[in-house]
Amino acid sequence: MSTATAAVDVPCDPGTAFDIFTGDIGTWWKRGTRYWNDSARAVELRLEPHVGGRLLEVYDAGTGEGFEIGRVLAWEPGKRLVFTWRQDDWAASEFTEVEVRFEAAGNGTRVTVEHGGWDRVPAADLGVTDGYSHGWQELLGLYAQAAEEG
Amino acid sequence: MVKDIDATLSALADPTRRRIVELLHVRPQRAGELVAAFDVSAPAVSRHLKVLRRSGLVTDHGVDDDARLRVYELRQEPFTALQAWLDQVQAFWTGQLGAFREHVENISKGTTDQR
């Protein structure tokens, strides 16, 4: 019910797609989004390649250590990857779950992400309140601008 | 509005209540019909319905020919608000997957160039 889904097609086989997704996550992961826990300190993302491995937002390039976003629950090369996901301002017991599936589609692979478990995290911690007020502020700013130009 | 989202997420943090919401998503139902769909007792279902009603996820109304019967149905507003939150999460992953595809395409191009 409370699951967000996104998908993309990539021009390689599922095994390669899985390897690039996990092994190169430090390279392709989008920078500068508000979803970094600490975008000022974050160097890259790092995923330890086994069940129980950590997904880290790396702050120290030398040691490779940083904030632990989550842990790998399922590691099935070429098929499926599941890991937990939390933000640094959530209580330690609160986490959501991300499942990534790799399925052959035509000459390539369809990669599907399902991010669920949001009903386990109190809304206050999700920053929903901030998100909404921020959104409205932006809209009202645009409106004010349009009004001025009009 | 924001208060609603808070209530929505805590109300949904229970498997029985999530199941009730799924059943009501199919069609509005009487409390008795909902009880029949669960192993739990009628008072337990009643308690869950109370939570769902208080949080604004469901509403109940009487039936014309029998005032004692209450029919429960979902309210759209809280689910719209929850969807707005999920849309943000979805936009995040769509952006990330777009970056992933770009990276894969660059790699495939690189491999071709080397040949």
How many strand segments of chain B?
A: 3
Structural Rg of chain B: 22 Å
Taking the alpha carbons of the first and last residues of chain B, their distance comes to 58 Å
Strand order of the largest sheet of chain A: 1-7-6-5-4-3-2
How would you characterize the overall build of this protein?
The complex is a heterodimer of chains A (150) and B (115). Chain A has four helices and seven strands. Chain A has a seven-stranded antiparallel β-sheet with strand order 1-7-6-5-4-3-2. Chain A has one domain (4-121): Alpha-D-Glucose-1,6-Bisphosphate, Chain A, domain 4 (2-Layer Sandwich), CATH 3.30.530. Chain A is α+β, with helices and mostly antiparallel strands and 150 residues long. The longest helix of chain A is centred in the last third of the chain and has 22 residues, at 128-149. The termini of chain A are far apart. Chain A is globular and about 40 Å long. In chain A, strand 4 (65-76) and strand 5 (80-85) form a beta hairpin. Chain B has 115 residues and is α+β, with helices and mostly antiparallel strands. Chain B has a single domain (2-114), classed as Winged helix-like DNA-binding domain superfamily/Winged helix DNA-binding domain (Arc Repressor Mutant, subunit A, Orthogonal Bundle), CATH 1.10.10.10. Chain B is 70% helix and 15% strand. Chain B contains five helices and three strands. Chain B has helices spanning 2-11, 15-26, 31-36, 42-54, 76-114, and strands at 29-30, 58-63, 66-74. In chain B, a hairpin with a 2-residue loop joins strand 2 (58-63) and strand 3 (66-74). In chain B, helix 1 (2-11) packs across helix 5. The longest helix of chain B is centred in the last third of the chain and has 39 residues, at 76-114. The N and C termini of chain B lie far apart (58 Å). The mean pLDDT of chain B is 83. Classes of the chains: A alpha+beta (150), B alpha+beta (115). The A-B interface holds A 1-12, 17, 20-21, 24, 27-30, 33, 35, 111, 113, 115, 118-124, 126, 128-129, 131-132 and B 1-2, 5-6, 8-10, 12-13, 18, 21-22, 82, 85-90, 92-105, 107-108.
